[in-house]
Specification:
Chain B: This is Ras-related protein Rab-2A. The complex is a heterodimer. Chain A has 37 helices and no strands. Chain A is mostly helical. Chain B has one domain: Rossmann fold. Chain B contains six helices and seven strands; from the N terminus they run βαββαβααβαβαβ.
């Protein structure tokens, strides 16, 4: 009576998802057989066909990345397109462990919560979560060598990371979709880094994706419909006609960040982009996949019903061959700027609130990539510093003394580098850390809640609620000022090609004689800042073509007031306002970073030793270690002549991700920065 | 492939009760102890024959974790049959049946046929839920009941086919409006068209970038 299913009727996605279905003959738990370069057992979901870039190219890129890493804050202050370019080209496998956490802000989070992961790790978690997590452990990449055995470091690491997350965010707990994400992170980095990356993704990049109501996913599925309508109207129409909704085919695309739907090498490239640009990349990839499945007329005609369409979409991996570069180029060419995305988000949010009046979900505060992540990092640092000062640690030599303000930038930089060394020592000094460890847990826990609340309540910069800092009063008028005024100011700041930021601040500061010390600077600068800044901006009225774009972007940013977008504005504004302190902190930090980060290899080495990294790439890297090292040295030498470099800063100040052009065409002018600094 | 009817099924139940394994056993006739976790929804399809008529079963296999219910709800729409699965070795999965049932009733059409399945019947030694308890629950809520084992394939075919029979009977009785696809039933094409083959046939094609 029964007719067995034909092979074509088996669910394609199952066959494709890491090949879990293909290998019933593989005895799991047995010593690993041959694997591909990513650690997938050959014949069981191995997808790494392409060889990847040539070793020479890899080495070149490694050198570039090490350069970027070593001067992270400076690269970001310069607002160059270097990072984006390199993310688009693909982060070398050996450096993902370093770059992904850095891009998403996990590195910083980890640094400031030194022992938190270990503390959580050593404590027992809620048994109900432990049970669920344990049950899922062998269902994540079952054909990857790391995750083969129950007691292997893959499954144990996965357990530790996911368990720690439920402890950090008890209100969110564990969502099954976090498993594959954590697993891919663990394939690329040690557990602690993976943990903080997962935290950053869950909390900053994709808020609401893994929370109990999955509001983020529901919301983004709706946004995806809008995006498809605009970018792929014919396919969208087809989906509508057959009642196919994004929730039916894109839930795990989005929630698992495509971990199970792309060849692994392509996936890693997509993640490079994701850490760089945030959620936008997920939409762009989804568009490409829908296009590849249903883009052509004959493809759509072949799918005459809902089920056929869904099956085609689920089996889309077959449409993505080993062609990383093409795929990534296609993803980047999907016309969805961050502005577009904000607009769609706004519209969807209106609808969302009508339909769900009780929901407090607001995705506008989410972090759209490394730049925003960095801005938040800075902001946290500021908060921390402020708190520190309030505790009465005013004597800390947080920043350089005002006497330095008259020095030339190159001299200054030398001083920062020297000075920051002591700062760091004192900041992260043992005594303070010990005192703080127990509090950290609490601080971290409350943070998520605060973040959400903050973004709901005010569109203004995210600041620590309830921190009665002396500067708050002073800043309040700045933040609430009319957007136009802000733009005006910002615009003027940006468009002073000859006035390098730091020198201009110095001028400003020296003219404001009241600023004699950091503490005073904060109080008095606040009182006198408005006139000073106006004076300042009036004296600089040159405009370039950039201004319009920037203005528009700012307008959108202001209107939509994503918390940190505003923060950036305000941050930049206040820098020119005689609030010497802030900018000084920036600089101190930049210096500190350079110092601290110049030795990334040691980290990597420990990684290779401790974690038995699965990737051969890493090994090669360690062998080649000497090469990038020399590179770094040359860099530090070059650093002493940053004047030219600084100039580029103001010129390049155009708003980052706003238009597609920046996104795709940046490629053309790589390395110019590097060259300038070398000269 | 030509079919007289297409029935849409949805498989629901707590995480780890064996929903995906049941589906795989039914569609592929094999047991895969190690498989990827279901996030969102997975699909399966198989032809069966009832009363001499070819019937295509289109099966939606859902994620079991509680938080996914907000998403799973959108999959109920247009389901003619539901397999509500619990694990006989885990009492809690049986205890959650009521909420699953509430969800199913609330978000699907009232005629949806629900089959209660106590899975993992091969693990008799670890049994926590007696067969009688399952039967009683089914009787109380008007469900069909079966104990299955996705591992040994015991009762798996029957579970899917009995559900289909029930639906088919309802169609014969005129309970289902088969012209309304929202009921999860679609009348098949009267003739086989070449276009109706499934996606697999286009497998290796390389799609160009041009679209829409």
């Amino acid at each position: 009576m029964l007719s067995a299913s034909t092979p074509t009727q088996t669910p394609p996605s199952r066959e494709d998802s890491s090949g879990s279905d293909r290998g019933s003959e593989v005895s799991v738990g047995a010593p690993a057989t041959e694997t591909d370069r990513f650690g997938f057992i050959l014949g069981n979901g191995s997808t790494a066909g392409s060889e990847g870039p040539s070793p020479e190219l890899v080495r070149q890129r490694e050198a570039k990345w090490i350069n970027i890493i070593s001067q992270w804050d400076r690269v970001l202050l310069k607002n160059s397109s270097k990072v984006k370019e390199q993310c688009q080209k693909g982060i070398p496998a050996s450096l993902r462990a370093k770059c992904w956490p850095l891009l998403c802000g996990a590195t910083d989070r980890m640094r400031h919560n030194k022992d938190l992961y270990q503390t959580l790790d050593s404590r027992p978690a809620l048994q109900s979560w432990v049970d669920v997590i344990e049950r899922d452990l062998d269902r994540q990449f079952p054909f990857h060598e790391m995750f083969l055995s129950r007691d292997g470091h893959g499954q144990r690491g996965l357990f530790r990371v996911l368990k720690a997350f439920t402890q950090l965010k008890p209100e969110e707990g564990y969502c099954q979709a976090q498993g594959p994400v954590a697993a891919v992170l663990l394939m690329n980095m040690p557990t602690e880094q993976a943990f903080w990356c997962l935290v950053q993704i869950s909390e900053q990049y994709l808020p609401g994706y893994y929370s109990p109501l999955l509001e983020g996913v529901l919301f983004d599925a709706a946004v995806l419909t809008r995006v498809l309508k605009r970018t792929c109207p014919a396919a969208h129409k087809h989906l509508q006609r057959h009642g196919v909704e994004p929730l039916m085919f894109a839930t795990d695309w989005l929630m698992c960040l495509f971990t199970r739907h792309l060849p692994f090498n392509t996936l890693l490239r997509v993640w490079d982009l994701f850490f760089c640009y945030g959620v936008r990349v997920l939409f762009q990839v989804a568009v490409v996949l829908v296009r590849r499945a249903l883009g052509r007329v004959e493809q759509r005609e072949a799918c005459e019903g809902q089920m056929e369409t869904l099956e085609r979409l689920r089996g889309v991996r077959e449409q993505v061959q080993q062609e990383d570069d093409n795929f990534i180029a296609e993803v980047c060419s999907v016309p969805l700027s961050s502005k577009d995305l904000e607009r769609q988000t706004e519209r969807e949010l209106e609808k969302w609130r009508m339909e769900r009046p009780a929901s407090t979900f607001d995705p506008r505060g989410r972090c759209h990539g490394y730049r925003m992540a960095w801005a938040r990092v800075r902001e946290r640092e500021e908060e921390r510093n402020r708190k520190e000062r309030e505790k009465g640690n005013l004597s800390l030599p947080l920043i350089r003394s005002p006497s330095l303000l008259s020095l030339s930038p190159s001299l200054l930089r030398k001083k920062w580098i020297r000075g920051s060394r002591t700062d760091i020592g004192e900041w992260e000094g043992e005594g303070r850390e010990v005192r703080k460890v127990s509090e950290e847990v609490w601080e971290e826990r409350s943070e998520g809640g605060n973040l959400r609340r903050r973004s709901e309540m005010d569109g203004s910069p995210v600041r620590a609620p309830g921190v009665p800092c002396p500067a708050t009063e002073d800043r309040a008028p700045v933040e609430t000022r009319e957007p136009l005024e802000q733009e005006d100011r910002r615009q003027k700041i940006q468009l002073t090609p000859d006035s390098v930021r730091e020198p201009s601040q110095q001028r400003q500061l020296t003219s404001d004689h009241s600023v004699t010390s950091q503490g005073q600077g904060e109080e008095q600068g606040g009182l006198s800042q408005t006139p000073v800044s106006e004076q300042h901006s009036d004296s600089q009225t040159q405009e370039t073509d950039h201004s319009k774009d920037t203005m528009q972007t700012q307008e959108v940013l202001n209107k939509q007031s994503t918390a940190s977008a505003n923060f950036i504005t305000v941050h930049i504004m206040t820098e020119t306002k005689g609030e010497a302190e802030k900018s000084k902190e920036t600089e101190t930090c930049a210096g500190a970073m350079t110092e601290e980060e110049t030795a990334p290899h040691t980290d990597l080495k420990t990684y290779t030793e401790e974690e038995t990294a699965p990737h051969t790439d890493l090994k090669t890297y360690t062998e080649e270690e000497t090469a990038p090292d020399t590179d770094l040295k040359t860099y530090t030498e070059e650093e002493t002549a940053p004047d030219t470099d600084l100039k580029t800063y103001t010129e390049e100040e155009t708003a980052p991700d706003t238009d597609l052009k920046t996104y795709t065409e940046e490629e053309t002018a790589p390395d110019t920065d590097l060259k300038t600094s070398t000269q | 492939m030509a079919y007289a009817y297409l029935f849409k099924y949805i498989i629901i139940g707590d995480t780890g009760v064996g929903k995906s394994c049941l589906l795989l056993q039914f569609t592929d006739k094999r047991f895969q102890p190690v498989h990827d976790l279901t996030i969102g929804v997975e699909f399966g399809a198989r032809m069966i024959t009832i009363d001499g008529k070819q019937i295509k079963l289109q099966i939606w296999d859902t994620a079991g974790q509680e938080s996914f219910r907000s998403i799973t709800r959108s999959y109920y729409r247009g389901a003619a049959g539901a397999l509500l699965v619990y694990d006989i070795t885990r009492r809690d999965t049986f205890n959650h049946l009521t909420t699953w049932l509430e969800d199913a009733r609330q978000h699907s059409n009232s005629n949806m046929v629900i089959m209660l399945i106590g899975n993992k019947s091969d693990l008799e030694s670890r049994r926590e839920v007696k067969k009688e308890e399952g039967e009683a629950f089914a009787r109380e809520h008007g469900l069909i009941f079966m104990e299955t084992s996705a591992k040994t394939a015991s009762n798996v075919e029957e579970a899917f086919i009995n559900t289909a029979k029930e639906i088919y009977e309802k169609i014969q009785e005129g309970v289902f409006d088969i012209n309304n696809e929202a009921n999860g039933i679609k009348i098949g094409p009267q003739h086989a068209t070449t276009n109706s083959t499934l996606s697999g046939s286009q497998g290796g094609q390389q799609a160009g970038g041009g679209c829409c």
